[in-house]
Predict the structure.
Amino acid sequence: MDELQPFLHRTRIAYFSMEIALRPEMHTYSGGLGVLAGDTARTCADLGLPVAFVSLVARAGYVLQEIDASGRQVTRPNPWQPEQWTQPLGAMVAVRIEGRDVWIRSWLHLLVSPLGSIVPVLLLDTNVEQNSPSDREITDQLYGGDQVYRLKQEIVLGIGGALMLRALGFDIETYHLNEGHAALLTLHLLRGSRRHGTTTAAKRGYDHDGVRWQCVFTTHTPVEAAFDRFPYPLVESVLGPYIERDELEQLAGPDALNMTRLALNLSDYVNGVSRAHADTTRLIFPGYQVHAITNGVHAPTWTRASFARLYNAHLPHWGLEPEVLARVDQLPDEMIWSAHQEAKQDLIARVKERTQVALRPDLPTIGFARRMTEYKRPTLLFSDIARLTEIARKHPFQVVFAGMAHPRDEHGKDLIAIINQRVHDLAAVLPIVFLPNYDMRVAACLVAGVDIWLNTPLPPLEASGTSGMKAALNGVLNLSVLDGWWSEAHIEGVTGWAVGNGSRSHAEDLYAKLEHTVLPLHEGDRTRWIWMMKQAISRIGAHFNSHRMIRRYVTEAYMR
Ligand SMILES: *Cc1c(COP(=O)(O)O)cnc(C)c1O
């Protein structure tokens, strides 16, 4: 384990996440939560912070998406080979699942920052010969299987991850739980905190405060129904008598083991991912102190080559210190415009290659890419086809969609089918393409290559949102419902535009903004458009980046 040697003594913080987007070839992520974890890891590497990352190996990946002839999503497994990007570590640990020992090993990925610093990432794997065939599959599928499968994964992640760190020789002071999936880690710490020989029967000697002191929790979910929740009989059959039932009920809720409640009760620092989301969390869980360190994105990862060259030439420290992007508003218009044209050509070439459709470089292009699910309302643009057609005739534009639905989200899959039906129906008046298989690579191309980034979530369900931050780094203007991060970044007509901030319905306002503000501006006033691009980069890029986010986590959460 020589590879780990440099990290063992310095690492003090462990960041646990069910998914993590390290690089496109490693299929250990599905969407925004994983991208945030990956951007966090990249930033910790840049800043040389003493953090190790823990996730699952997800050999079968999330899913690969194809669109069939009828426009519906079809998915296949999306496996990858850990051997290609990681090295196996020798240590093995066991967790108890359904009364058996399930053995876990780990794979080490050394994530190297653009500046050459490294953070270690451990990917947990139950595919070892000591385990039965079904236990070997526990760490295979990201967000796959049923509730029993999910609980087993969460035991491996939370309890197995903590055991693994210890077995490898790490001495961790602070555990950061990225979402509730790893919350069983708190139970592992609780068991370890027990003061033997104590007679305080009520607390059985558990040192709650000691555990809380070690835990930082970031919640990402703004609706109660979406929290991971396991019925106690299930917990008892899978996890066994790990912690007494009445103790669990106290910590994780009386009806079922609610992972968010458990993490809230055993973390000293709780964070929502935007101010609006922190407010929502306080409403769901009255009485808890919830902080609001708003998410950010890793600027060097999400800035397209043409803009990165421009920033390198004029603001050489932008990668490590994205605050200097505030000065982008001083750069000449032609430079911004030509960097944007290059990014747009990249996207047009990719669309041509993937879909055979030739988009036009001169037309304003709207991008919409995110998980296809009800609350994101991807079909809001199609609420009134006659109106949309009329606008497209008056002010021609084109649209690029991308996004996957969870294989069990029937409504999400229907939304994809509806979009593809509209692609077909509107072909004569409004060019629309659907790019399959939304992943880090498609995202990087799309957020930079369109002109307008559209987001229409149903408030308050977008906890933060991060793709609009990526767009802004590339001078792409946000047109978005005021929810999550956009409530903090939006300045009307300066950094972008809001949808639905007046008395009109969201659909009505979207059409009005497109018809009277956004499309005419793109057509008629390039100087003002480029001025807005510069405002977006300066004001959003300089603030909504992961360097600012991590520096705040360090000073407010880790060093509390
Ligand atoms: C950035 C990103 C997301 C998250 O974007 P949201 O705006 O939060 O929906 C999801 N998937 C991929 C592939 C991304 O790159």
About this structure: Residues 31-32, 35, 370, 438-440, 443, 465-467, 470 surround pyridoxal-5'-phosphate (CB under 6 Å). The chain is about 40% helix and 15% strand.
